[in-house]
Amino acid sequence: MSFDPAKAVHKATLPALRDRIGDALPASRRERLSPMLFAGGLLAIGAILLKAKPRFGHVPEPRQFGDLPRRSKARRAALASRDQVATFAPTNVTDSLGRSLMIGGAALLLTRLLDEAAGRDGK
Question: Helix 29-52 and helix 93-118: axis angle, to 10°?
């Protein structure tokens, strides 16, 4: 095997050339629109989860051992804390997932639309 300096220079400069071409040319239409399609999918799946409320996502009531007062102070504190924290717990996990997907999808779609409105650098 012999060393050819012309090929070595060519291989070293080719990635740099690709980077410059990538900087000069705008992203292809497919690359620009695919995040919008992905955002639409997130919004659709989120809406389906919110509308359907699948049974497998139902969370049981946190008061499984009852609400009667407890004898020890530690157990009374745990009971009071449980009731305070329960207000933040979802009743249906799929509702929370659906809402999160819709928020993420809306944010992604808005970001892409604003990016398209902003246009290319220097224009």
Answer: 150
Report which of 47, 60, 62 is spatially closest to residue 95, judged by C-alpha positions.
47
Question: Which positions ≥6 away from 35 have C-beta within 8 Å?
Answer: 108, 111, 112
DSSP assignment of 12-73: HHHHHHHHHHHHHSPPPHHHHHHHHHHHHHHHHHHHHHHHH--GGGBPPPS-TT-SPPPSSH
- Alpha-carbon distance 102 to 47, whole Å? 7
Q: Which amino acid is at 63?
A: R
Sorted by where each begins, the domain ranges of the chain are: 28-118
pTM given for the model? 0.58
- Residue-level pLDDT, tens digit, the chain, 123 residues: 565 655 555 555 666 666 665 555 566 777 878 888 999 999 999 999 989 888 888 777 766 666 666 678 888 788 888 888 888 877 788 888 999 999 999 999 999 989 888 876 655
